[in-house]
Fold each of these.
Amino acid sequence: METCDLVRLVVNKVAVPPEPVRRGNPGYPRLRAVRLLVYSKLAGLENDSWVVRHLKRRRDVARALGFRRVPHRTTVGRWWRRYSALLGEVFNWLSGLVQLMAPTSLLVVDSTPLADLYDMEASWGFTGRGPFRGFKLHAAVNQLGLPLRAVVTPGNRHDSPLLPSLLEDLEADYVLADAGYDSDENREAVSSMGAEPVIAVNPRRGTRGGIRHGVLLREKRHLVEQFNGLVKGSMLRGCWVRPRGLVKKTSVVTAGLIGLNTTALESMLEGEPSLRAVSRHWL
């Protein structure tokens, strides 16, 4: 299926309800705007100038996405800020479809750095590989390696307090996380959703010993690590560096995740329900 047709099929009027009628120039409907933002990530268009140039060269794509005239580069740039919250709603709606087609047996939670040395809103943070300046993508992926929840924060935000929000409205049998999420509050949050916490013990908290289902954590942690590598290297391709500010970066990353789950739905319908199979569309 063509990329623009796939976007039109999945990002539809159910995912993006119409805006209330307003007086004055109506502008572009937000359904078309959101479709274009998602399409730009699926098509590998790294900045707004590339998006406009691509639509001018491919008038058939512009018409398929619903545009009779190609929007200006600055208009596309404003959409990243204006529709940031809406992109988050569309992503959560699509993750609901993923859960219907592949019921969640386990969730794996982790964060990955989005390095950016020059953004004024970037902060210094730390990973297992050392310090970095930029932002973080916090994600919860299912047993197929597909993202169900995601949050973008400055680089100095600690992982642990974000776990409850990443689990909100989700169901699973097990929740896997590394020692950075080791806290009584997080274990209670996992238990309250009816799942069993499989969280590595942090020796800095003064606790010792192993954990139940430690083998499961060792065997399945690669799912989120694979997701981090593929989504940053193959879907986003460093595109979070160009937009400035947390809001625009969040929108760009979320549009990429929507694109990933869009291709995931197509892949599952074809009987190939895994992140590696999905990645053939954008490697």
Amino acid sequence: KSIGRVAVGAGTLGLFSTLSVLFYAASALGLQFMDALFIAAALSISSTAIIVKILEDAGRIKKESSILVLGILIVEDIIAVILISSLQSIALVGTVSIESIVVVVLVATGLIVGTFTVGTRVIPPLIDRVAAAEHREILLLSVLGLCFGYALFANLVGLSVAIGAFLAGVLVAESKSAEVAKLLASPIKDMFVAIFFISVGALMDVSQLENYIFIALALIAVSIGMKFGSNFIGNTIFRQKRTKALRSAFTLAAPRGEFSIVIIKAGVDIGAVSSFLFPLVGIISIITAFISPFLVKAGDKIIPALEDKEDV
């Protein structure tokens, strides 16, 4: 709630400015109109899975700057759902369906508002009652049931499973048993993270690497530069401290992942884009996942120096 306005403003500005520049860059590299449009949309969205893993490993998932990053990621996930619908509409009928966009926005707003009002009053007490029985297996199953149930519900109403799972996590975090639930679910979380990275690796066709590596590196450079700059400017516009804006920019700049793959797959499935975009986005996802921790560490070295200057 505290960072909602900033997350919506900075997240939207960062995503669409990155998308616009990437579209022109992809066109300049020789990609056809629909290929350039889909790859630009795919690479304008940061990977929630990778960023959350990096923040958790660094022990800063609950920091104020990380809360802002998570807020921006949720905004991007909602926009991603709208983008997928819009891109499919453009590819199939040549125009954007305003009605479908309005429906997605209303449904997303309703789900989020409902979670933060009704959900936070009903679900956390139920989790605490289950935990009070002191049967850890039942608590784990209850938390997983909530996660998959919320993800399924989000998918049924036209949103992404990522949004549903995240909101389920928000409800678990509001309970008094949140730390116990987190410990119990941690091994399963690690398993799914591993599966995600395996699925990304499976997209990489090594035999095609030399054909796409130049395009991949060029798009990576443009996407990282734009994502960094636009997020820093967006956070600055919404009056965030320079160091907080920088930390957000360093964290969001590099990783591309789950939604990048989903967007390209949607284009390939309806025959709107070239099939080579699949291994291309796989290569980009792997390279950016490797770069991301180094960018965060670079921020850790640069930002403290700026903080010292601000104090002076």
